[in-house]
Design a protein that fits this description.
Chain lengths: ~80, ~240
């Protein structure tokens, strides 16, 4: 069965949109990390610098899965591997 | 077109890597792209800074001037960062970590100068990840010996080895993809703003530049170096 190019491009756009739904997970995770960091600073304001550093490191690692989704979306939209 | 990944260009929306010129090498077409040019500019800036810093430190005074102060601040910050994570192994790795820190940081914020950040090209970040991988592997063999390495590979049970190998190989890929995707997303976002809102984009792209280039770039630089140090310290072990 042969599909024409515009059909595949449209489906790629839908797939790209679905792929960036992966951003939900890191958003929730980063929010939880920031909330706990805020609580930790509230308990121990002296350790603010260490807590901020640890929080940013953890958030950046948690962000990776969302970025994979973004990468898939980029590939589908701009490299067009399926056409 | 016959061009590789991310080499094609879209009308009006310009964040792709462009080929500058190409030449034939052993029957393969090799492209010199904008990434190479931006990389050379970054390296030139770093070289000039290094020579200036070296000259400033040669005639260093006890009460430092402005430039000497900046250089000392940078070196102290990098020393503190590395020794805080790696402890007594810091002295062997502070040069490498400091070098990649400064290089990645200047690369990330080169978007402020109108360049396309070189780190928004997977061909730049993958070698950085592979360098980290080689250092991890080398230190594992050196400090834990081959027997310890094999023991770590079959950690809970011997048939766990394929999963451990995948876990080891995933380190450089996830390190490089994290840096690449973060910088690329900032580049794409700014390209969208500049392309779609050319009429009304007066001041607020500057705010986005501060976030995507300065903040995100600094955070990702920190994360890359931090994870490299963590992995290497883990490979060295405690003994």
């Amino acid at each position: 069965m042969e599909f024409n190019e515009s059909f595949i491009l449209g489906c790629s756009a839908i797939g790209a949109g679905l792929a960036v739904i992966a951003g939900i997970g890191p958003g929730v995770g980063q929010g939880i990390a920031a909330g706990h960091a805020a609580a930790a600073v509230g308990r121990n304001p002296g350790a603010r610098g260490d807590i901020t550093g640890t929080m940013l490191l953890g958030q950046a690692v948690a962000e990776t899965t969302g970025l994979y989704g973004l990468l898939i979306a980029m590939l589908l939209l701009f490299v067009k591997p399926l056409v | 077109m016959g061009q590789g990944i991310l080499l094609s260009s879209e009308a009006n929306l310009d964040f792709m890597v462009h080929g500058v010129f190409s030449y034939e090498l052993f029957g393969q077409t090799v492209w010199i792209t904008t990434t190479h040019v931006c990389l050379l500019i970054v390296l030139l800036v770093l070289c000039i800074f290094a020579f200036a810093a070296g000259a400033a430190m040669k005639r260093a005074t006890l009460v430092p001037g402005t430039f000497q102060n900046i250089v000392e601040l940078m070196v102290e910050m990098l020393d503190h960062m590395v020794s805080g994570t790696m402890g007594r192994h810091a002295s062997k790795f502070v040069n490498y970590i400091g070098t990649i820190f400064i290089f990645i940081f200047i690369s990330n914020i080169s978007g402020l100068l109108g360049l396309r950040p070189p780190t928004a090209d997977y061909g730049v970040t993958l070698p950085l990840g592979v360098a980290t991988f080689v250092i991890i592997f080398f230190n594992k063999i050196k400090h834990q010996k081959v027997s310890g390495f094999l023991k770590g590979l079959c950690d809970p049970w011997p048939f766990w080895a394929p999963i451990n190998i995948i876990g080891d190989v995933a380190v450089p890929i996830s390190l490089s993809l994290r840096l690449f995707a973060n910088v690329l997303s900032g580049t794409v976002m700014l390209a969208l703003v500049y392309a779609l809102l050319a009429k009304i984009a007066y001041v607020w792209p500057a705010v986005l530049h501060v976030y995507f280039d300065l903040f995100s770039g600094a955070i990702q630089t920190y994360v890359f170096c931090m994870l490299t140090m963590t992995y290497v310290a883990d490979a060295i072990g405690d003994n």
